[in-house]
Give the backbone structure.
Amino acid sequence: MPTEKSALSETLSGRITPATAVPSRVPSWGLEHYPGECEDFLISYKTNTALDALCIKDNQKVVLKRVDEKELKILRYLDALRSDARNHTIPLLDVIPYPGTEWTFVVMPYCRRFNSPPFHCRGEFVDAIKQYIDHFPGGKESARLTSTLRTFPMIPELSLEVPYNPFYVDVFQLGLAMSRIIDIYPALEEFRTVAASLTVDDPLAHVALAASAANLG
């Protein structure tokens, strides 16, 4: 009887090779970095949802992500809107069903973090935030869901019991991301009020994104 590991290998055979299975692979963190800060940190598909991999046909570095039916539906919907210039979501390169399970593996380009390499000057920060705001999706007032977030669990309206508008949460997350960058670069302190305007406790009081973009100068 095949093991779970061998079943996974058979599913990916001929298409994707997890980077951790490549004999010549050299982890990027070495002795100078904490592994958890590196994108190619060893990740087990059993306990996490993504790991870096190599596409066999062109040897390109990709990300192999395990998703359920709901997430796959969302990814396919966004990928179908690829011709829309406002769509900056990461594209789907391949979809690999995992037989006998509720999971599917999706293959996506390997991307850097939004602040890697670090911002070089004030203008790069302003330009990046304006791009995020300009291409921010407009949300429906009626949209509701219940969930939590690992990245920013402190967002007030997050709840597993009380439905909230996810688009308000997206605005809050943008403000928190801005604050984290400002914490690193003292010269950006003048933009602290812009970040704060997006992270007030009352989601209905969030300053309009257009106004935030104008305040960036």
In short: DSSP finds six helices and seven strands in the chain. The helical segments are 4-12, 69-79, 122-134, 166-184, 192-197, 209-215. The radius of gyration is 20 Å. The mean pLDDT is 76.
